[in-house]
Design brief:
The chain is mainly α and about 200 residues long. The protein is built from eight helices and no strands.
C-alpha cells in the first residue's frame, strides 16, 4: 500500500476520534478535537500532493480519498446538527447525495469505467470544507475560557441565530445540483452497456 493511501486510511480512522472529542463538554477536549480535525484535513492536502509528485496515484486511492473526505465533513455536519447549529434535513440531503454518488463510483469501478470528479463537485467540496472549518472555529470562539465572555456571547448568538442555516441551504442546493449533474453526465459512460441498453 502506498504512503498516500496510508494517509487516506489514517484520515478515516481519525473521524471517530475527532467526533468523540468535539462532543465533550470540556473546552480543552474540544480544542484537541479541532486539532485532530485539522490534522485529518491536512492529510487530505498532502496525500494528493505526495501521490502526484511520486507517481503513486492508484485506483484505490482515487476511490478512498473522496470517500474519506465525505466521512470527515459528514461527521462534522452531524455534530453541528446535534449541537443545534444546523437543520437536520439539509445535512441528510447532502449525505444522501454523497451516498448515491459514492454508489455510482463503486459501480463504475466494478464495471472498470471509473468516473472523474467534475470541477463543480470540487467546488462543492471546497464550499463544504470551508463552512465546516468556520463553524469549527466558532465552536472554540464561544468558549469564554479561550477568548473571554464578550466574544463568547457574540459567537453564541451567531451560532443560534439561524444565519448558518441560510448558508447551509445554499450549499445544500449546490450539492444536490452537482449530484444530479454527476448522474446525468456519467449515465451513458457508466450505467449503460456497450450495446446501448440501460
Amino acid at each position: 500500500m502506498t504512503f498516500s493511501n496510508q494517509l487516506t486510511i489514517l484520515r478515516i480512522i481519525l473521524v471517530p476520534v475527532f467526533v468523540m472529542l468535539l462532543m465533550q463538554a470540556d473546552p480543552w477536549l474540544k480544542l484537541v478535537g479541532v486539532i485532530v480535525f485539522l490534522v485529518a484535513s491536512l492529510t487530505d492536502i498532502y496525500d494528493g500532493y505526495h501521490a502526484r509528485k511520486y507517481g503513486q496515484i492508484t485506483r484505490l486511492g482515487a476511490f478512498l480519498d473522496p470517500l474519506a473526505d465525505k466521512f470527515l465533513i459528514t461527521a462534522a455536519f452531524l455534530i453541528y446538527v446535534w449541537q443545534g447549529y444546523l437543520a437536520l434535513w439539509m445535512v441528510l440531503l447532502v449525505t444522501l447525495r454523497d451516498i448515491v454518488v459514492t454508489g455510482l463510483r463503486v459501480y463504475a469501478e466494478y464495471k472498470d469505467r471509473p468516473v472523474v470528479t467534475s470541477r463543480e463537485a470540487k467546488y462543492k467540496t471546497l464550499a463544504q470544507n470551508l463552512f465546516a472549518y468556520i463553524i469549527m472555529v466558532f465552536i472554540l470562539l464561544k468558549e469564554d475560557i479561550f477568548f473571554g465572555k464578550k466574544i463568547a456571547v457574540v459567537i453564541n448568538g451567531i451560532l443560534h441565530s439561524g444565519y448558518l442555516d441560510y448558508v447551509m441551504f445554499v450549499i445544500t442546493v449546490f450539492t444536490v445540483w452537482t449530484g444530479i449533474s454527476y448522474l446525468k453526465s456519467n449515465w451513458n459512460l457508466t450505467l449503460r452497456n456497450p450495446e446501448g441498453g440501460s
